[in-house]
Design goal:
The protein is an all-alpha fold and about 140 residues long. It has 6 helices and no strands. It has one domain.
Length: about 140
Amino acid sequence: MNWKRLSLAAVLVFVALIVTELIIHLVILKGCYEPLQESGIFGSQERMSSYMWVKILIGAVFAYMFVFIFARGYEGRGLMEGVRYGIYITLFFNFVMAYLQFVLYEIPYSLVWSWIISGLVQNIIFGLIAAAVYKKETASI
């Protein structure tokens, strides 16, 4: 396993995660969240802000594990390998978690699909990063 490339890919995925999360949740879906926050389904802004360090830690773990699992199954098939991996992760993670949130909380069904589709876009971007950066170490002669 190429630990240097894995680490670089994980850092780049983490940066992409932060940027895409800001765009998705603070810009695109902001209007969907406001009524839910007012109704008390979501915690207060102050509470969420006080736990931002947890969100950052979870993002770092996600980015590392995303690339680590990619590297374990790496086949060297180019960027499409990253796209395929992004789709798999979306079905495994985002699809399951979005529907779980729908079952547990009174959220609009449209939000479930917004989370799944935005997760798909994110995971394909992350997969492309992983595929572009990660390469197995070659044996030196």
